[in-house]
């Protein structure tokens, strides 16, 4: 095993990563999740990949693919609460991802909803449509709770 990393952690990405209206607090929370995973590998992925040995290359590629997958799903939902609930998505084969990811995403969203928070942001048209559905479901849930004895 190589010695402990001595590189300074990267600064959080700019708000453009998540699109217009992203705030720095949300990005900082997402950055913490990525940084926690990055601390588990033996260096920066690009350096590991350039080293040339197959084990380091494979680890760097796995990290990069997991990072992209995680960021893509987090960006689609757009809230730090959802990203923290879902956590890091590890790279896997396509069949396993298709079988497991949808339920994991739903479970994460439900966990956020149970805390009385939105799982979906409101920056993009797709997020606003999903957020409106969250609002309608929340109203229906409260209406049925008021009717039940």
Description:
The structure is a single chain. With 149 residues, the chain is mainly α. The protein has helices at 24-38, 45-51, 54-77, 80-86, 94-114, 125-147. It is elongated, with a radius of gyration of 18 Å. The model is unreliable at 1-9 and 11-18 (pLDDT under 50).
Q: Determine the number of helices (DSSP H or I, runs of at least 4 residues).
A: 6
Instruction: Indicate the overall shape.
Output: elongated
Secondary-structure content class: mainly alpha
- Share of helical residues: 55-70%
Specify the biggest β-sheet.
Answer: none
What ranges have pLDDT less than 50 throughout 5 or more consecutive residues? 1-9, 11-18
**Global mean pLDDT:** 82
Termini distance? 62 Å
Secondary structure: number of strands:
0
Strand content: under 5%
Radius of gyration: 18 Å
The run of helices and strands is: HHHHHH
Question: Secondary-structure blueprint of this entry?
Answer:
Layout: H1 24-38, H2 45-51, H3 54-77, H4 80-86, H5 94-114, H6 125-147
């Amino acid at each position: 095993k190589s010695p402990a990393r001595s590189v300074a952690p990267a600064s959080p990405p700019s708000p453009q990563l998540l699109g217009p209206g992203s705030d720095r607090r949300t990005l900082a929370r997402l950055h913490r999740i990525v940084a926690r995973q990055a601390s588990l590998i033996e260096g920066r992925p690009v350096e590991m990949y350039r080293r040339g040995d197959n084990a380091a290359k494979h680890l760097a590629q796995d990290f990069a693919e997991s990072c992209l997958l995680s960021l893509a799903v987090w960006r689609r939902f757009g809230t730090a609460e959802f990203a923290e609930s879902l956590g890091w998505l590890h790279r896997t084969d396509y069949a396993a991802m298709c079988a497991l990811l949808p339920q994991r995403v739903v479970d994460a969203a439900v966990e956020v909803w149970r805390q009385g928070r939105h799982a979906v942001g409101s920056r993009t048209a797709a997020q606003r449509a999903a957020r409106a559905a969250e609002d309608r479901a929340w109203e229906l849930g409260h209406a049925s709770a008021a009717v039940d004895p």
